[in-house]
Specification:
- By secondary structure, the protein is mainly α.
- The chain has 2 domains: 272 residues, Orthogonal Bundle (MetI-like fold); 207 residues, MetI-like fold (Orthogonal Bundle), CATH 1.10.3720.10.
- The protein is 77% helix and 0% strand.
- The protein has 24 helices and no strands.
- The radius of gyration is 24 Å and the shape is globular.
- It comes from Rubrobacter marinus.
- Belongs to the binding-protein-dependent transport system permease family.
- This is ABC transporter permease subunit.
- It is a multi-pass membrane protein.
């Protein structure tokens, strides 16, 4: 876990303080820093503005079809940001579908979609489910007796929401907003397609074009420091709230009355923009490409590569996370706490910085591993291990240790107890953790581009290669297949227990 961060520090330190200062305080570096912070702030604000009302409507009101809307509102999470960028460029960009449709009416040019507006729109539409899922879960588990007491004392619905409900939701909102902010800071595909330079795009350009890659390592460390600052702000602002307990009162659905139609329009509009439109545009380009002679032969091999490497990463991540979770839950203490916190280092490291560190490490110290499947899977596991660890840890906390103690008292050894007792008890967490790692690995782009073996294409790299050359019809097939394959893990994670 500390290898990538340590190597970046060593690589950057080789430049000396003078060169480090020149890179850090260069006008272009400071501009990239400002642009990255601005993008993260805008995307986070928009995502929260979309997700909180949507979560409240689907969890606390009599919105017609709210269970179906809850499912549809979560599904944009399977759409990678670079696929969203592809949809925006092909629809609203120069010579895009909208421009072609309006040309007969005399419209020669549309406002540019490139830059901050396009990048913020693409990231907001496909990251708001992070906030939506956490806030909706908090609303479903929140004790409604506080709200009912406020209403009985004469407080109106809006006053009750802002004074009672919203403060209790602050930890959930901040937790989801943190994921959105980190995603926006580390995103590479959407910002590159929409020509908005951030740290991730600049690091990739430096790595590919510059003979001396030390500046790329320095920029990567700047990004790591920025991520650390975001984590520190989140820690100070998240607050604490007790959503409920065993005897929590279940909230009765709030009647929308005359607001029912606006609520339906809002919910339907978000789902249309974030799910229906991207899928519809991709289907259009796919049909157009097939009619023009495009083939899907290479897509199936890339799909197999994606499923294979994602499944491998999910399995290895679960195997690596299980002993850490057992240590943290069954043997709490300073050492186990340190090991658990150390496991989150890779997740805090943006994928582009992690990949850059492993490129340096592999090419200089482990050439036998450089551009191999083993190093790529290693990168995935380092980056996504906390996702498996969190799910397994939660499952173990719900399992009684007395069963394991009884097995030990009957003479079964530690490994036997782990295999026959602990693993079955944590089965739900193991499955959920593997599904989450599989889902995120399927969409991962920068680490795959930099660390993937030669001629090892995945659906993510297929979409990127085709889109970067403006071959939208060629990108549609792998993009749709990526969404289709990613949907079942999301169902496993969210739908099964959130639409009741």
């Amino acid at each position: 876990m500390v290898l990538p961060l340590l190597y970046l520090a060593i690589r950057a330190s080789e430049a000396g303080l003078t060169e480090i200062s020149e890179v850090v305080f260069d006008a272009s570096s400071l501009e990239v820093l400002a642009r990255s912070v601005l993008l993260a702030a805008v995307v986070t604000a928009v995502a929260v503005g979309i997700a909180v009302p949507l979560a409240w409507l689907t969890a606390r009101t009599d919105l017609p079809g709210r269970r179906v809307w809850a499912v549809l509102a979560a599904l944009p999470l399977v759409v990678p940001s670079y696929v969203g960028g592809l949809v925006l460029v092909s629809t609203l960009g120069p010579r895009g579908l909208l421009q072609g449709a309006l040309a007969p009416l005399g419209v020669e040019r549309l406002p540019s979609i490139y830059g901050l507006p396009g990048a913020a729109l693409a990231l907001s539409l496909f990251t708001y489910p992070y906030v939506f899922l956490t806030v909706r879960a908090a609303l479903r588990g929140m004790d409604s007796s506080f709200e009912e007491a406020a209403r009985s004392l004469g407080s109106g619905r809006w006053a009750t929401f802002f004074r009672i409900t919203l403060p209790q939701l602050r930890p959930a909102i901040v937790a989801g907003a943190l994921l959105v902010a980190l995603y926006a800071l580390s995103d590479f595909g959407a910002v590159s397609l929409l020509h908005y330079d951030t740290f991730s795009a600049e690091i990739y350009i430096q790595y590919k074009s510059a003979f001396d890659r030390t500046p790329a390592a320095i920029l990567a460390l700047m990004l790591v420091v920025l991520v650390a600052a975001v984590l520190a702000v989140e820690h100070r602002t998240r607050g604490r709230a007790n959503y409920g307990g065993r005897n929590s009162a279940v909230a009765r659905p709030v009647p929308l009355g005359r607001w029912r139609l606006p609520a339906l329009l809002f919910t339907g509009g978000v789902v249309s923009l974030a799910l229906v439109l991207p899928v519809g545009i991709l289907v259009y380009w796919l049909v157009r490409g097939l009619a023009a002679g495009e083939t899907l032969e290479s897509v199936w091999e890339s799909a197999w590569n994606s499923v294979f490497v994602s499944g491998l990463a999910a399995g290895v991540a679960v195997l690596a996370a299980l002993p850490v979770a057992v240590l943290a839950v069954r043997f709490p203490g300073r050492v186990s706490g340190f090991v658990e916190r150390l496991s989150y280092v890779g997740f805090a490291l943006p994928a582009i910085a992690l990949a850059l560190a492993l490129v340096f490490f592999g090419s200089n110290y482990a050439p036998a591993l450089y551009q191999t499947l083993a190093l790529l899977v290693f990168a995935y596991v380092v980056h996504f291990l906390p996702q498996a660890l969190g799910a397994i840890r939660a499952a173990l906390l719900q399992a009684r240790p007395s069963v394991e103690e009884a097995a030990r008292s009957l003479g079964r050894g530690p490994l036997g107890v782990l295999a026959t007792i602990t693993v079955p008890l944590a089965r739900n967490g193991l499955v959920a953790g593997a599904a989450l790692v599989f889902l995120t690995t399927m969409k991962e782009l920068p680490a795959t581009l930099l660390l993937g073996p030669i001629e090892f294409d995945t659906l993510a790299t297929e979409v990127w290669n085709a889109t970067s050359g403006a071959f939208f019809a060629r990108a549609a097939g792998p993009a749709l297949l990526l969404i289709l394959i990613s949907a079942p893990p999301l169902y496993l994670l969210t739908i099964r227990d959130r639409v009741k």
